[in-house]
Amino acid sequence: AAILKSATSDSLIIIDELGRGTSTYDGFGLAWAISEDIAKRIGGFCLFATHFHELTSLAERVPLVNNYHVTAITSNDKLTMLYQVKPGACDQSFGIHVAKLAKFPPEVIEAATKKADELEDFTSNKRSNPSAESSIRKKQRTVPE
Q1: Using CA of residue 82, residue 53, residue 30, residue 109, what is the dihedral sign?
Q2: What is the mean pLDDT of residues 140-145?
Q3: For residues 55 and 32, is the Cβ–Cβ distance under 8 A?
Q4: Which pLDDT score, from 0 to 100, does residue 124 have?
Q5: pLDDT digits (tens, 9 = 90+) for 77-95
Q6: What is the DSSP string of 107-126?
Q7: What Å distances lie between residue 9 and 67, 127, 140, CA to CA?
Q8: Can you tell me the distance from the alpha carbon of 41 to that of 28, in angstroms, rounded to the nearest whole number?
Q9: Mean pLDDT, rounded, for 44-64
Q10: DSSP of the chain
Q11: pTM for the full predicted model
């Protein structure tokens, strides 16, 4: 909140993991609203990292927003960070690769891969059926009386 209240167009704003520490929907909503407010109202230079890949679509709606990513190569179950910053959104996640490098047990890697695939399918289905997404969100936000 302090950044949004005190930053000006002359500010340099750096935020690590924007939207983290909340539920998925709340975190994404906050990350979107914060970054949009910085770009539209404040106008200062802002650099932030986030795990919400969907946030990259903000660049299509707000002309001042640009996406950049740090490059990496995956081959033969190896992850090589190239430490180069390039324009555009990152086209993949490296979480499971990093878990393999950290020597997580194979059954955990397998379960994580399966769950990630399920979530990817779920998200794809929501995009193709917006009314389903709306009803899912309503169910999640309904609090019993």
Answers
A1: negative
A2: 37
A3: yes
A4: 63
A5: 788 889 999 999 988 888 8
A6: HHHHHHHHHHHHHHHHHHHH
A7: 20, 35, 38
A8: 19
A9: 90
A10: -HHHHH--TT-EEEESSTTTTS-HHHHHHHHHHHHHHIIIII--EEEE--S-GGGGGHHHH-TT---EEEEEEEETTEEEEEEEEEES--SS--HHHHHHHTT--HHHHHHHHHHHHHHHHHHHHHHH-HHHHHHHHHHHH----
A11: 0.69
Nearest-5° Cα angle at 89, 15 to 56: 60
Cα distance between residue 62 and residue 72, in whole Å: 27
Evaluate whether 70 touches 83 at the Cβ level (below 8 Å).
yes
136 pLDDT above the threshold of 60: no
For residue 47, the Cα-to-chain-centroid distance in whole angstroms is: 14
Per-chain mean pLDDT for the chain:
83
Cβ-Cβ contacts under 8 Å for 29 (sequence gap 6 or more):
none
Report whether 72 contacts 82 (CB < 8 A). Answer: yes
Compute the chain's Rg from CA coordinates.
18
